[in-house]
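Problem: given the chain below (294 residues), write out its structure.
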Amino acid sequence: MEKYLTDLVSPGTVIRDVGVMQHTSTGYRAAGKRIATVPTMGALHEGHLELIRRARRLADIVVVSIFVNPTQFAPEEDLDKYPRPFEQDVALAFREGADCIFAPAAQDMFPAGFDTGVSVEKASRPLEGAFRPTHFRGVATVVAKLVNITQPNIVVFGQKDGQQTVVVRRMLRDLNFPIDLVVVPTVRDSDGLALSSRNVYLNPEQRREAPVLFESLALARELIRHGERSCAAILHAMRALIESKSSALIDYVSIADMDTLDEVNNLHEGNSIMISLAVRFGSTRLIDNIHVQL
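Solution.
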């Protein structure tokens, strides 16, 4: 088996063929290797690199997927202009410890006649789902395919996409995937702005205003720490801060149960909540969230 692995793929290899990736993963598993998969859409930044570092500490083999998934973009969204600095991404991923990169073509992941999808019904409806109703079906479907192809023991995601982690956790649980989900805390710039591939779309003025998103989340946390238990009051304060310090248009601010994503009206001891928001700076839409355990 070790000879088979050596013949098939060497360290630092970019694998584009689905079948080769499946055979490689099967070989790693048969050789007793623990695999961690880090799904990405490329345009890697420090947040992605922290996911790779965490995977490196947890597994023998780290597979980084780079695939801009067309099924999670609505027709009016930015699929065509999504950044694709592939050679740079490859160099960064290998520098941080990836053993191989899986970079399939869209027509191989979703060939003509593809007619199957994975829907996590309840967790996909609120928040992002209300504004992007087809998004999480695309996410759940591609993650299901990626873990079937790369066969990891662990899959690593970032907390910045908070609802996505809830959807993926529910899918893994409901479909009995024998995979542990590891969620890595959001990596932020020095001014608090969550790192995102879409931050490059912000003009200089918008970039100066954007840290107000984290400021509003921090304000919510402080209000809770000082005894505020009315979610309406907390959300009102968040909105007021964003509107007073930026030109952003608010899609939503939310306080929801961390497991179910049901909106919470009043906080009580023992609540585990996700405080989240989505705003638009011109055509650039940014999301962020924090967890609070009462």
